[in-house]
Backbone:
C-alpha cells in the first residue's frame, strides 16, 4: 500500500515550539553563506548548462551531419526537437519522484545515464538510430528541472533569488563554451573509418561526446552534496535535516558555533508532509502501476486547483513561448547565421533581409543534378555571433543577479520579454545583414526570462509542490521547443518570416501576462494579510 500524504498547517506545529527549536528559515540562516553555497551554485549552474549543451549542440551538428545522416529540412526539425520530446515524456515522472523520493536521489543516476546515452548516440549510423538515442537522452535529462527546487531550498528568502541568478550566470558561462567547443572540435579535418559499424567517425560525432562530459561530472559532484534539508524536513526526517545544516555550517567555515538545534519547525507558509513514500509491502489486491499513477496524480492535482490554477496557467504559457524561441527557433540559429555569413562573403556590400538570404542560400545547397552540396565546416562568423550571444547572456545574468532583489522579478520579466522580442521582430525588416545579425542575436536573449521565471516559481509554490511545479512548467516549455523546432523546419524554406511573426506576437502577450502573477505564494499572502 501507499501511505497517505498527510498535511499539517505550520502555525499549528509551531504552537509546540521549544527553547532549542527554530523555524527552518532561522536554522538555515545560522549556517551562514559561504563555500558550501558557492559550490552548490556552481554545480547547479552547470546542471542547467548540461541541458543546453545536450540539446542546443544539435544546432551546430545538423548542417554538418546532413550528408552523413541523409537529412532533409523536416528531418532536421525532428532531430532538433526529439530530445525535448524525451524530456516531455518523463518530466512528470521525475517531478513526482523528486517530490517523494528526493531531489538529489533523482538527479544523480539520471545525469550519469544521460552521458551513457550521449556516448552511444555519437556512433548512430543513421537518422532513425539518432532519433531513438536522442529521445532517450532527453528522457533522462528531464530530471535536471529539479535543480531549481534543490538549489532554492538551501537558501533563505533573502539569498534565494540571487543564488538562482548566480547559477544562471554559471549557466551562461557554460553556454559560452558551446560555440568555442564547436569551433575547436567540428572544424577539424580528420576521419576514422569504422567499417565494423558502417560509419565514418568525423569531428561532429566527437563533439556530441564532448558536450556530454559536463553532465557526467555533475552527476559525480552530486555524490558530495547532501539532500535538500527542506525536503528532508517535509518528509519528517528531522534528524537528517539537522545533520545537513551542520554540514553546511562546517563547509561555510563555522565562525560562531552553531546553536544546539533539537527541533526544526516549518515556516509559516509551509506544510508538513508526514509521509511521502511507498511501503515495502503492498496489499495483495493492489496493482503497483495503478497505485503509483494515482499517487502521482494526487501530487499534481493541487497545481490545477483554485488556489494555484491561475499561477500554473500563466507560468506554463510563458514557458511554452519562451522555449519556442530559445530552444525551438534557436536550433536554426547556426543555420541562419551560417547562411548570412556565406552570403556576405559571396556578395560583399549587397543588402538583403534575413529571410531573403535564407531563401537564396537554400537554393544554393542543391547542385545541378539535384544532389545536396555537403557542408563539412561552418563559417567562422557563425561561431563569432554565437560567442557574442553567450557573452551577452552571461552579462545579462550577472546584471540581473545584482538588481533582482531591488527591482523585482515581475518588472525584469516584463522588460526583458518586450525589449528582446522587439529586437527579433525588427531584425527581419533590416536590409543590412550585419545590423540584422546583431538584432537577431539580441532576440534570443529573451531566454534570460526562463531563469528569472524559475526563481519566481520557487517563490510561488510551497515545498511539497515546488519540484512538480518546476518540472511541469519546464515540460510545457519543452513542448514549446518541439513545436518551435518543427514549425521552423517546415516554414524555413518558404515562409521564414512567419517564424518571427508568430513567436514575437505570442511573446508580447506573455509579457503582459507576467503582470498578473502575484508576488508571493497564496499561503504567504494569506499570512501577511492575517
Residues:
Amino acid at each position: 500500500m501507499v501511505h497517505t500524504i498527510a498535511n499539517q498547517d505550520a502555525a499549528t506545529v509551531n504552537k509546540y515550539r521549544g527553547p532549542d527549536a527554530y523555524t527552518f528559515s532561522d536554522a538555515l540562516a545560522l549556517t551562514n553563506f559561504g563555500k558550501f553555497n558557492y559550490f552548490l551554485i556552481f554545480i547547479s549552474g552547470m546542471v542547467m548548462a548540461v541541458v543546453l549543451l545536450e540539446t542546443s549542440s544539435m544546432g551546430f551538428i545538423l548542417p554538418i551531419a546532413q550528408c552523413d545522416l541523409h537529412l532533409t529540412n523536416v528531418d532536421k526539425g525532428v532531430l532538433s526537437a526529439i530530445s525535448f520530446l524525451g524530456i516531455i515524456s518523463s518530466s512528470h515522472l521525475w517531478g513526482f519522484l523528486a517530490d517523494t523520493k528526493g531531489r538529489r536521489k533523482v538527479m544523480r543516476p539520471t545525469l550519469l545515464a544521460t552521458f551513457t546515452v550521449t556516448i552511444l548516440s555519437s556512433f548512430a549510423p543513421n537518422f532513425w538510430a539518432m532519433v531513438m538515442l536522442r529521445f532517450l537522452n532527453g528522457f533522462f535529462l528531464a530530471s535536471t528541472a529539479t535543480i531549481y527546487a534543490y538549489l532554492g531550498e538551501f537558501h533563505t528568502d533573502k539569498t534565494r533569488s540571487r543564488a538562482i541568478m548566480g547559477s544562471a550566470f554559471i549557466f551562461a558561462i557554460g553556454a559560452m563554451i558551446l560555440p568555442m567547443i564547436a569551433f575547436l572540435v567540428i572544424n577539424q579535418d580528420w576521419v576514422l573509418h569504422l567499417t565494423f559499424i558502417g560509419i565514418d567517425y568525423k569531428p561532429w560525432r566527437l563533439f556530441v561526446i564532448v558536450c556530454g562530459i559536463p553532465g557526467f561530472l555533475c552527476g559525480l559532484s552530486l555524490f558530495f552534496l547532501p539532500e535538500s534539508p527542506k525536503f528532508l524536513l517535509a518528509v519528517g526526517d528531522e534528524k537528517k535535516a539537522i545533520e545537513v545544516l551542520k554540514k553546511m555550517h562546517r563547509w561555510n567555515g563555522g565562525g560562531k558555533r552553531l546553536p544546539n538545534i533539537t527541533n526544526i519547525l516549518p515556516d509559516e507558509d509551509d506544510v508538513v508532509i508526514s509521509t511521502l513514500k511507498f511501503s515495502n509491502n503492498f496489499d495483495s489486491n493492489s496493482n503497483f502501476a495503478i497505485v503509483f499513477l494515482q499517487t502521482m496524480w494526487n501530487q499534481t492535482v493541487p497545481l490545477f486547483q483554485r488556489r494555484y490554477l491561475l499561477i500554473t496557467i500563466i507560468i506554463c504559457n510563458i514557458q511554452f513561448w519562451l522555449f519556442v524561441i530559445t530552444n525551438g527557433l534557436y536550433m536554426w540559429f547556426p543555420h541562419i547565421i551560417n547562411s548570412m555569413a556565406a552570403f556576405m562573403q559571396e556578395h560583399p556590400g549587397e543588402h538583403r533581409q534575413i529571410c531573403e538570404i535564407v531563401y537564396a542560400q537554400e537554393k544554393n545547397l542543391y547542385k545541378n543534378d539535384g544532389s545536396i552540396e555537403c557542408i563539412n565546416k561552418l563559417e567562422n562568423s557563425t561561431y563569432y555571433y554565437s560567442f557574442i550571444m553567450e557573452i551577452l547572456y552571461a552579462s545579462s545574468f550577472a546584471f540581473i543577479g545584482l538588481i533582482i532583489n531591488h527591482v523585482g522579478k515581475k518588472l525584469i520579466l516584463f522588460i526583458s520579454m518586450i525589449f528582446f522580442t522587439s529586437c527579433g521582430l525588427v531584425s527581419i525588416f533590416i536590409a543590412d545583414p550585419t545590423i540584422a545579425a546583431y538584432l537577431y542575436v539580441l532576440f534570443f536573449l529573451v531566454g534570460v526570462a526562463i531563469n528569472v521565471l524559475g526563481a519566481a516559481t520557487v517563490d510561488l509554490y510551497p515545498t511539497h509542490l515546488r519540484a512538480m511545479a518546476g518540472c511541469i512548467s519546464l515540460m510545457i516549455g519543452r513542448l514549446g521547443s518541439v513545436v518551435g523546432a518543427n514549425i521552423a523546419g517546415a516554414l524555413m524554406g518558404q515562409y521564414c518570416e512567419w517564424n518571427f511573426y508568430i513567436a514575437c506576437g505570442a511573446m508580447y502577450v506573455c509579457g503582459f501576462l507576467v503582470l498578473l502573477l502575484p508576488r508571493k505564494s497564496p499561503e504567504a499572502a494569506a499570512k501577511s494579510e492575517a
Summary: The beta strands are 7-9, 21-23, 192-194, 199-201, 263-265, 271-273. The radius of gyration is 24 Å. The chain has one domain: 7-529. The first helix runs from residue 10 to 14.
